[in-house]
Amino acid sequence: MSSSLAPLVLKPLEGVEAAKRAAAYASVDNHVLPEHKVVGIGSGSTVPYVVERIVQQGPKVNAARWFVPTGFQSKELIVQAGLNLGDVDSFPVIDVTIDGADEVDPSLNCIKGGGACQLREKVLAEAAKTFIVVADYRKESPQLGQKWTQGVPIEVAQFAYASVMRKLEALGGKPVLRMGGGAKAGPCVTDNSGFVIDCPFPASSFSSPSDLLAKIKLMTGVVEVGLFCDVAKAAYFGNADGTITSRTAAGEVKEGISFDVQRNPVVA
Ligand SMILES: O=C[C@H](O)[C@H](O)[C@H](O)COP(=O)(O)O
Questions:
Q1: Distance 86 CA to ligand 1 centre (A)
Q2: Does the keyword Isomerase apply (predicted)?
């Protein structure tokens, strides 16, 4: 362990938040290595713990790195942490991207886009030599659509939303245009000025997530679909008992991994 790192002072967390933090820390320890100079930072409520652990690796290793965000939220995380902000224009090849997910199946297919960031997230996932998913135990699922029941998030060009919704209905979906919520009248608008349609499908549609993805992606007006198929190399799930489950795309599963979040990261 690097002796130059100050002892960690972590605020106590419980339940789901503790699970998110443990999964995020484990993913950074295993995949953000000193030789990695370009790191993609995903979106959502788990990713702040990813950035926290990266900062704990120390200013020396991070001074030589660039961090590429998947949207406004992660850009702010990078800037607030004092890390070097990069862009995928400048770094089209990323060493490792770490991101959250709304649901993950045993093959590591994911539903993403609960925070409407799926377009930039997918660009950074595909640009990465290694794409890693971090989540809490609620997201691990035998088949997509069982845990994240509000539907597949689909970003569309604004003027095409009604036409895409009709096509999604014809595909067996029950599309709903996502609204901005209490803070905004009208639809949710993404970082790319698109609208988002949330579309639940019958369970049979998720027997092949990549087929479903291909069908939706071909609809004119669709910008990106929150189905990530065959992209993730590994996933880390924080469990309610404080342990971690890891899964790899190759099918390796490790359950009950103990992880001490109070321990400093190992930095060469
Ligand atoms: O658009 C948002 C993203 O796909 C998030 O990564 C996803 O919603 C998971 O977020 P959280 O870590 O808050 O569950």
A1: 21
A2: yes
Looking at the structure, do residues 108 and 239 belong to the same domain, yes or no?
Answer: yes
Identify the CA nearest to 65 among candidates 42, 91, 27. Answer: 91
164 with 134, same domain: the answer is no
The 3-state DSSP class for residue 64 equals coil
Q: How many domains does the chain have?
A: 2
Run means of pLDDT, 10 residues per run, the chain, 268 residues: 70 94 98 98 98 96 97 97 97 98 98 97 98 98 98 98 98 98 92 97 98 98 98 98 96 96 86
Same domain, 214 and 233: no
User: Phi/psi at 8 (nearest 5 deg)?
Assistant: -75, 140
Residue 5 lies in a domain: no
Q: What sign does the CA torsion over 17, 20, 23, 26 have?
A: negative
Q: Mark out the alpha helices in the chain (DSSP H runs).
A: 15-31, 47-56, 59-63, 72-80, 118-127, 161-170, 209-217
Question: Do 161 and 243 sit in the same domain of this protein?
Answer: no
Task: Tell me which residue range forms the domain holding 54.
Answer: 15-142+229-257
What is the spatial order of strands in the sheet that 110-111 belongs to?
103-104, 110-111, 227-228
pLDDT, residue 1, reads: 44
For 48, phi then psi, to 5°, come to -55, -30
Q: Tell me which DSSP letter residue 103 carries.
A: E
86 lines ligand 1 (CB under 6 A): no
Quick check: ipTM above 0.90?
yes
